[in-house]
């Protein structure tokens, strides 16, 4: 890789089943999306570190010397297995002029950046003098893992800048992936970044952002699905804003208040993930309609459960009603409370029915699109793969 810099990307994700339950030790099934976050890092020199995050309206620049002092102030023995402490985050907030209880997208993005940059540079090298810009095809805060894709890109780029991971890209190659061991390191640091943004993440989103494909995740254990059929999924963004951190905290509160009522619901969600995995692994790669009634029923049951644990929203109820009126089954995906829903499109759904459903969803003010699933995880790109459109967007940001 030339010293000029690097370009990395990581995919968003769709959780088929197991959101929220996965935070409490149950299984989740998740697939990587064909929508990605990109990060370009350029070695700057001049002792400055510059970050541009156009998706959340951030443009910040610091003296590397100033960041070194800050790092030494919060220095502990930083490690990829250590959570950021409240005290460390308080010092970073004060430094960046962020209110103690701030939860705005730009504040959380800066905080995650500062933590990851200082922690990684403390462990592996020095604070790098670089220019970083991050942009995304993912909607922010809509349930598609934008925070994890951001954290995975940051982890890969900062580890690379500190020479803690190699440069797998060979001359003439457009893209390359890191080794399993390096991806494990990227994933662990991305998890710490997710902790800054989410408070108490399960780790499923950063696992998908790192490894890509389709996987089962439970208590940190990642298993690739044996076989993933080509599922057609319609994604719908209700555009209702919500915060994963707040929703995850709300579920925890409900479980503590009504353990005997909520724990069986989480067990049932776990059984749904199990059942869905068995069906997916039994399905032929090419879609076959006979498996779909079970998948659809599992969507319906889980959507009810997610309402019971308090993460539904009237906009998501509406989404489910609209698609049901066209014979299609939907559930929320990610943290819920608004954000995105997914609709299963069986091979025997007529193009007319799908088009009519899309039209009615758009008439509700929602945005919907079909996208590929099972995309590759964190990837290093040659900088020549930046197309004109992207270069223009970078110049504008
Ligand atoms: N492209 C980006 N640039 C900078 N920060 C980002 C970007 N994308 C996401 N973020 C950060 O992640 C936060 C959104 O994370 P949140 O977990 O609430 O939503 P999500 O990850 O999109 O959904 P879910 O966690 O349910 O899948 C934003 O508020 C911002 O701080
Ligand atoms: C809601 C949740 O289960 C998924 C968010 O995409 C939170 C998490 O697993 O960290
Ligand atoms: Mg998130």
UniProtKB/TrEMBL annotation:
Biological processes per GO annotation: cholesterol biosynthetic process; isopentenyl diphosphate biosynthetic process, mevalonate pathway
GHMP kinase N-terminal domain ranges (all copies): 117-209
GO molecular function: ATP binding; metal ion binding; mevalonate kinase activity
EC number(s) reported in the record: 2.7.1.36
Residue ranges occupied by any GHMP kinase C-terminal domain in the UniProt entry: 298-354
GO cellular component, one term: peroxisome
Cofactor dependency: Mg(2+)
InterPro entries for the chain: GHMP_kinase_C_dom (IPR013750), GHMP_kinase_C_sf (IPR036554), GHMP_kinase_N_dom (IPR006204), GHMP_knse_ATP-bd_CS (IPR006203), Mev_gal_kin (IPR006205), Ribosomal_Su5_D2-typ_SF (IPR020568), Ribsml_uS5_D2-typ_fold_subgr (IPR014721)
Keywords noted in UniProt: ATP-binding, Cholesterol biosynthesis, Cholesterol metabolism, Cytoplasm, Kinase, Lipid biosynthesis, Lipid metabolism, Magnesium, Metal-binding, Nucleotide-binding, Peroxisome, Steroid biosynthesis, Steroid metabolism, Sterol biosynthesis, Sterol metabolism, Transferase
Catalytic activity: (R)-mevalonate + ATP = (R)-5-phosphomevalonate + ADP + H(+)
Pathway stated in the Swiss-Prot or TrEMBL entry: Isoprenoid biosynthesis; isopentenyl diphosphate biosynthesis via mevalonate pathway; isopentenyl diphosphate from (R)-mevalonate: step 1/3
Top-level enzyme category: transferase
Keyword Lipid metabolism: yes
Highest taxon of the lineage: Eukaryota
Location(s), subcellular: Cytoplasm; Peroxisome
Keyword Magnesium in record: yes
Entry similarity comment: Belongs to the GHMP kinase family. Mevalonate kinase subfamily.
Record's subunit section: Homodimer.
NCBIfam families xref list: mevalon_kin (TIGR00549)
PANTHER family found in the cross-reference section: MEVALONATE KINASE
Function of the protein: Catalyzes the phosphorylation of mevalonate to mevalonate 5-phosphate, a key step in isoprenoid and cholesterol biosynthesis.
Name of the protein in question: Mevalonate kinase
Encoding gene, per UniProt annotation: MVK
